Amino acid sequence: MTGTNRRLDGRQEAVLKQMKGLGLRRQSRSYATNLYDIDSTSQLTCASDAPFEDTTEFGESTALPSVDVGEYSDASYSEQSDFSEYPSSSSSPESPRCAFQSPKGLSPEDFEFLQAHGLERCTSLKELGQGGYGTVDLVQVALPSGRNFVAARKVIHSPLYAQPRYERELRGLMLCAECPFVVDVYASRVTEEGQFEFLLEYAPNGTMHDMLKAMEQRRRGKEKLLMPVNRIQYYAACILQGLHFIHQRGQAHRDVKPGNVLMAANGRPMLADTDSMDSVKITKRAGTTSYQAPELWRATLQGPGYTADKADMYAMGITLAEMVAYPAGSNGKLQQLKDDPAGCMPAYVPADLKDLLCGLLAPAAKRLTVEQAMGHKFFDGLDWPALSSGPLGFNVQLRQAPLSEAGRAE
Questions:
Q1: Full residue range of the structural domain in which residue 65 is found
Q2: CATH number for 74
Q3: Per-residue pLDDT tens over the stretch 96-141
Q4: What is the value of pTM for the model shown?
Q5: Under 8 Å CB-to-CB from 356, ≥6 apart: which residues?
Q6: Which of 200, 235, 251 finishes a domain?
């Protein structure tokens, strides 16, 4: 059977139940049916509405500095690990081996095999995405225990993606290995042909960009929120948790956008594509043009209040605006919102959500930090520790949608 009449499996039934609970009443069954068929394309660096732009000169000292991760480290980090060296998991005799984060449920023997041989002995199942930089495909690795492990293999062969960029992306992923709001990396290597490869956590629900496009089609141009307030609250909180983890370590993501947010199997958003991650003090432009903060386009990038983490928060504001009402390409309305957040905010946006958006899109000197955003009244009542379980892992106990400024409940 096909379409909305076919029988759902157990996971899809769970999605259907949860989506109804979150307010997706129209076409919720169709959404659940198609949820696991969405291809994940955001794991390609170039999968965006504008090409990646990074004016950093790799000859300069722009690599991730040594970071103290002691309070977050476990057996996946060695006390002798030195982040001043570039890690590599296999195939490169010149690079030191480095311990990656083990997926849950794998034995030490299976994980050691996955690190050492996962990329060279994997079997491709299907292509997930492709672009000018390379491809991403779904792969299966037969482990010594007899278990078949599924992951995403990212292969980059573009001459624009050089060794320093690979090292920066790998180190960014390694730095965030214990954060459930950043995609996991299991292995990496540089092949003899000069291709850069990563074995990454598979996100079967595609990207947030995919999801927002589907929601916009269902909305059919109606003047209303793109999704229920509690879903906006949940997704925004997860992304902020990922940024908080990164910013606490003196780093900035520098390319926050829906296309770089992968949706895990349980619906949890995860930041991806860390190849632009760098120190919060870096003042060179990087990221996707339509998400870049206004101060990045000044003649001098030394303006008051400018740091890369503040630029992350502006990109977070644009991402949140797309979650609320304006997916990318919505007839210039998003640009109007950038120019005048307070004046161009739709009346159906609740007052505290509007206040949060205005704080994220404010000039750099007045823009909310990640800590201030997480403490905003829009997130009152949110169980922050439970976010990592995902919406299918715990009962969502979020407040009811507040009244909008127009005086009606959403």
A1: 52-200
A2: 3.30.200.20
A3: 334 576 787 889 999 999 999 999 999 999 999 887 788 999 999 9
A4: 0.73
A5: 320, 368, 373, 376, 378
A6: 200
